[in-house]
Model the fold of this input.
Amino acid sequence: MVGIIGPNGAGKTTLLRIFLGLLKPGSGYVHLFGRTPETLGQEREKVGYMPQRSVHKQNFPVSTLDVVLMGLVTSAGLGRGFSRKQHEKARQSLDKVGLLELQEKPFSILSGGQQQRVFLARAIAKEPRLLLLDEPNAGLDLPAQGRFFNLLAELQETQGLTVVMVSHDLTVISRYAHKLICINRTMHIHGSPSEVLNSPHLEEAYRCEYDVLFGSKARGQA
Amino acid sequence: MEILSFGFMQRAFLAVLMVGLLCSTLSFFVVLNRLSFMGAGLSHAVLGGMAIGVLLGINPLYTGGAFAVIIALLIGYISKYGRLQEDTVIGIFFASGMALGIVLISFKDGYYPELFSLLFGNVLAVAVSDLWFLAVVMIFVILFIFIFFKELLTISFDEELARANGLPVTLLYMGLLTSLALTVVVSVLVVGVVLAAALLVIPAAAGFKLSNNYRIMMLLAIVVGIVSGLGGLVLSYNYDVPSGATIVLCASVIFFLSLFRAFLGKLFSENILLGGRKKTRKNF
Done:
């Protein structure tokens, strides 16, 4: 699990969107599975994505299973209905995040933590090998964050997933990530969490004093 | 059934039936994508295109259709690349298209009845050629929605994910706007420029209030669209009142009934009166 950290406006989400080919890099290039994002073709199926929580529409008239099924709507099946196999996959994926019993429930009545787990199920429904998560812990209280990350770690182990996660919350992410990359417009530091958090360059990246133990200043900044 | 013994009434029924089905199907995506202002803007702007037809002696539906599609795509394009909010762009075309229409029609002698029927619709004057145009538009739009339903739904819910999964989001959105433009033009036949937007919003809004399952919502929208269309037509015939406005009023009454029904449902399921848990729906 790789964590990408940095202050607001550092370009964390932008970096993910470049990975996905949603934005073109101003300079340099990105390779996923040996190809550029624009020419991914079928390899795109191997990339799962969980956008920031705020981007989906609230109060949308779909069931929980419908939301997971949307993760299987890709360019490959354009214009065709869902197959029985896809329904099965969606249900399995909902089962993995432990919410199968809510499959018929309207998505809009679920709690924030449950909705995040459903979005995770949506991202892993097509059985990706690379999972990109954008601020998956935003808006979750601490116990919900803990449950979410434990689930993620479990999935990573059982599915052999590579997880790349963006967050501005250093304290939480450093507990779960194996590697941290700190960016602010440019890459400042990368390495294991302890290397990154103890690096003198961290302050420079956040442009403020950062106390890892208390974490308050950086969170105020970010 | 003596009402159906007149040729013009038969044509009116067919027109209302098709427009009702078309508008309510599309209204589903209008409501979910918050395109109601787009619908209102297009239906007013289309007057400019229809006036060109009136002046040149071509069926206004054809010129209006072409005009509406161009305007819809322009709005889509400018708001995407022109660094302007979509509602700002719509606001500009809304009034200028209509102004163009009024000025153009005034060149025609005795323009008043012509303008009046464009503004408020005249379903009793629908010609057979109009019905054909309507049928073609209906088949195109309904096929488009039917074929790409799951993609359109996914884009409506979470555009970012749809793009990440490689869906041709811009193309599909432009297809939706084209469908909207064509639908607006044919609904002008029935309810006129001023009221066309109502048919593109109310059916799905009523469905949305009654169900949080999109399948049922779609079905309810279609029922509302067709019932209010046919009901409004019969009422207007019996009481000799303008058909377009009566149809829209029928739809509005059904919408308010659905609000009332949704309110009652809430009352009973959550016991607001007994001080039970109150669950508010977030605005969407």
